[in-house]
From TrEMBL:
UniProtKB keywords: Membrane, Transmembrane, Transmembrane helix
Record-level GO BP terms: adenylate cyclase-activating G protein-coupled receptor signaling pathway; cell surface receptor signaling pathway
Name the record gives this protein: AGRG4 protein
Main location per the UniProt record: membrane
Chain ranges of the G-protein coupled receptors family 2 profile domain: 1-154
Molecular function as annotated in GO: G protein-coupled receptor activity
Membrane-protein topology: Multi-pass membrane protein
Length: 154
């Protein structure tokens, strides 16, 4: 959905309908956050699959992932809609001379940095932390296996 909204964004902005453009910008915002949230959930699943291989049963795991993957971005976009000024979304342009450079997106830089850049940065930190933990665990398993094989050789 992110790709569909992104690819049709400039075409939809040509209609010059304020409400329509705000809706498209909110959808684009939501699906972008959802894509990064799902990437974070993939890293958590990566950790569970490679480190906590046995004895991991999480009841209704897929349901919990779906609630987090679709719910957290919804909460962020609803907060932006209700609490923060709704006029932050709108029609923008890369260049005034080219009519096909119009797009519907976040118009306020501060809101962009808080609701997109900070969110993506937190996801990046989480993914990096999980990756480092997995690497350390794999290295520790390798070291233990090598010690066992030396012990058996003796």
């Amino acid at each position: 959905m992110l790709n569909m909204v992104f690819l049709t964004n400039s075409w939809l902005s040509l209609f010059n309908q304020s409400g329509f453009c705000i809706t498209v910008a909110r959808l684009l915002h939501y699906f972008l956050l959802a894509a990064f949230t799902w990437r974070c959930l993939e890293s958590v699943h990566f950790y569970l699959a490679l480190v906590k291989v046995l004895n991991i049963y999480i009841p209704k795991y897929i349901l919990k992932c779906c609630i987090a993957g679709w719910g957290i971005p919804a909460i962020v976009t609803v907060i932006n809609k209700i609490i923060i000024n709704k006029d932050f979304y709108g029609n923008g342009s890369y260049s005034e001379s080219n009519p096909f450079s119009n797009f519907c997106w976040i118009q306020e830089n501060i809101m962009f940095y808080i609701s997109i850049a900070a969110y993506v940065f937190l996801i990046f930190l989480m993914n990096t932390a999980v990756f480092i933990i997995v690497l350390l665990q794999i290295h520790a398993m390798k070291t233990r296996t090598q010690k066992r094989s030396r012990l058996w050789k003796k």
